[in-house]
Design goal:
Length: 653
């Protein structure tokens, strides 16, 4: 609980920063509070390029928000075309490293051309504004190109992380009613091919709406192409070259003039139930929030080389690999593979090679690097770094200190950024030239973000360090607009728990300096390696297995991944080999959802603790896996003896 050491920004950093000192931050924060939605209007005018100016900053009919209505805009135009009119034309926009050692650099001009070409391919295939595309690709430049080409035409994209299974891909494709899938044969991870097209083929057996699959060739391995449905990316691109000169392709493919609220993308994330939520983000507000935070939080300068290690399949990759950095005119780095391949210094090699100056990653990655030892980063020249970032889960002070000392050489501020898929962009984080840092705290909310902490009755908690629910008191431009196809769930989950406020699902406390300390989820969402996963998703995967009668899943604290998946399973009658079955069930979940969801532990039991109404008491299970003991009120338990048995029946592989 101690508020530990404070790290004040160096005068050198502050003197060049966009926001200089605490006074400036406070002034900006107060101004935003006073002006409400009008605070955002001049920022939107300045930061974004509009085809037609907007008439109003906000139309707010809770929980439905329309930001910058009347305006006409295009996200891809803001990420690419507008920079071509400046010196950024020849500046690297995207630096890419493939896992096997191949590498490519795209200037803004190159990337614009590549995006126009692919957008022309999409147009020629008959796709247009409001159509829906699933993108299921490895971390290759074509993934960013596909995303931007969709945005250019107003096609709503939904990127599904390449680590998800065929089953997860199927449910998302169906929920979105997608007509198009953009994929690749595979990608490289730890020297092995992750086959993607095979998963697409399997998923599409039950997705009759999909009429076209575009396949990018990355690994060159053999695969099946379904006639008429499947086309090669490169063949379409070549056809374009012979039919039309390159410049004509670009000219013929102007960015669509779209409404401010045009749906930009749907990103599926885990919620309380087993069904993932399709979080919808729209164009102008999302783009403003992500663009602004590049300056406010990453303090972006023209000559920065910026690297966010997230996969584009997660929201961090959307906002801080593609849209935020490109809209802000940065050079963004993208890496295809694993951080430990071929050795533990792969990341540091990339930092040194490209002179990365801003580096943004997850606490899980930092903790696993701590384990490998300092010799790996120490073997490389990391002097180009000037700012470090962390995202996705709480960072423990020990990992923070290591990151600060070993990677940042005690020179680089660390921005611990709290936000969510639903918030679109960073919400609580230090402005690094202004706000003194405390390891483990995301510090203070950004201007315009009225974060607060309330108790279970929705009353504000003013007492320092008392834990409560983290809420946001007013709408902000980057907020999710709805859950795709389920507006009622959107309202219930986010806007009805506390009157007139957004309910984050996180617990937090505020210290005497007003700093926010995020304590983790209050719902049934787990956070494994910074990836969101619902307990119910894993449970429903488990009960599909023929041996399993019932399953209850909880998160258990883990030294590296923050949390790990722990499953309590009751079996159908039979003579089961528990050791073998434990391994099999872990693999089963990895296959059903994706390898990142593989349970750490499976415990077999002959009954699960339930309330009289039959609800599984996850709280008790959480206590068992955390402390191996049970405390608190157990009087509503159906079978109290089950508890003592649970804590002794412990099966690990
Ligand atoms: C957690 C990722 C502590 C939190 C951007 C949130 C964090 C969930 C932090 C959202 C942080 C994210 N400190 N916890 N800096 N950042 N979280 O949607 O529980 O994948 O609700 O978005 O991650 O995860 P999501």
């Amino acid at each position: 609980m101690s508020d530990s050491q404070t790290y004040t920004p160096s005068p050198e950093f502050t003197s060049r920063a966009h926001v200089k000192g605490m006074d400036e931050y406070r002034e900006l924060y107060q101004q935003a509070l006073r002006e409400g939605e009008n605070f955002w209007a001049p920022l939107a005018e300045k930061e974004l390029t509009w085809f037609k100016p907007f008439a109003r900053a906000l139309e707010w009919d809770p929980p439905s928000a329309k930001w910058f209505s009347g305006g006409r805009i295009n996200a891809c135009y803001n990420c690419l075309d507008r920079h071509l009119l400046t010196e950024r034309r020849t500046k690297p926009a995207l630096i890419w490293e493939g896992e096997p050692g191949d590498s490519r650099v795209y200037t803004y001009e190159d990337l614009h051309l590549a995006v126009c070409r692919f957008a022309t391919v999409l147009k020629d295939l008959g796709f247009k504004s409001h159509d829906r595309a699933i993108i299921y690709m490895p971390m290759v430049p074509e993934l960013a190109i596909a995303v931007l080409a969709c945005a250019r035409l107003g096609i709503i994209h939904s990127v599904v992380f390449g680590g998800f299974s065929a089953e997860a891909l199927r449910t998302r494709t169906q929920d979105l009613n997608a007509e198009l899938v953009i994929t690749a044969d595979g990608g490289w991870r730890r020297g092995k091919e992750i086959r993607l097209k095979d998963a697409v083929d399997q998923a599409l057996e039950e997705c009759p709406l999909v009429r076209q699959v575009i396949v990018y060739q990355r690994t060159g391995s053999a695969l099946n192409m379904t006639p008429d449905r499947d086309v090669w990316w490169h063949e379409r691109d070549e056809r374009l070259s012979t039919s039309r000169p390159t410049e004509v392709a670009a000219e013929n493919c102007a960015a669509q003039d779209l409404d401010s609220e045009h749906p930009l993308f749907v990103l599926y994330t885990s919620g309380t139930t087993g069904k993932p939520k399709g979080i919808l983000h729209t164009t102008a507000g999302y783009l403003l929030q992500t663009t602004l935070s590049m300056r406010w939080v990453f303090d972006l300068r023209e000559d920065d080389i910026y690297w966010c290690t997230a996969d584009i399949g997660w929201v961090t990759g959307h906002s801080y690999v593609v849209y935020g950095p490109l809209s802000a005119g940065a050079t963004t780095v993208m890496y295809e593979g694993a951080p430990d391949f071929p050795a533990f210094d792969r990341w540091w090699q990339i930092v040194a090679k490209h002179k990365v100056s801003i580096f943004y990653t997850s606490p899980t990655a930092i903790r696993s690097l701590v384990r490998q030892g300092e010799q790996w980063p120490n073997a490389h020249d990391l002097s180009s770094l000037r700012l470090l970032g962390s995202v996705g889960e709480p960072i423990n002070p020990a990992a923070w200190e290591w990151y600060y000392r070993v990677i940042g050489k005690e020179r680089c501020p660390i921005v611990d950024t709290w936000w969510q898929t639903e918030t679109g962009g960073i919400m609580i984080a230090p402005m690094p030239g202004a706000i003194p840092l405390k390891p483990g705290s995301a510090t203070l909310p950004l201007p315009g973000i009225e974060a607060d902490i309330v108790d279970s009755r929705g009353e504000q908690i003013t007492q320092p360090n008392r834990e409560g629910f983290l809420i946001i008191r007013r709408p902000w431009p980057g907020m999710a607009r709805t859950i795709w196809g389920d507006p009622r769930r959107y309202e219930e989950q986010y806007w009805s728990r506390v009157p007139d406020a957004y309910f984050t699902g996180d617990a937090a406390r505020r210290d005497a300096d007003g700093y926010f300390w995020i304590l983790g989820r209050v719902d049934d969402v787990m956070n494994v390696s910074g990836h969101r996963l619902s307990t119910m998703e894993v449970e429903s995967a488990l009960v599909h297995h023929p041996a399993v009668a019932e399953a209850a899943v909880v998160a258990k604290p883990h030294d590296v991944t923050g949390q790990a998946v722990c499953c309590f399973v009751t079996l159908k009658a039979g003579d089961w080999d528990h050791g073998k079955l434990s391994t099999e069930l872990r693999q089963w979940v990895a296959r059903e959802i994706g390898p990142f969801a593989r349970p750490e532990e499976v415990r077999f039991t002959d009954a699960l603790p339930k309330t009289r109404s039959g609800k599984i008491m996850r709280r008790l299970l959480r206590e068992i896996v955390t402390t191996n003991a049970v405390t608190g009120d157990t009087t509503t338990l159906e079978d109290i003896t089950v508890l003592s048995r649970l804590s002794t029946v412990h099966e690990e592989d």
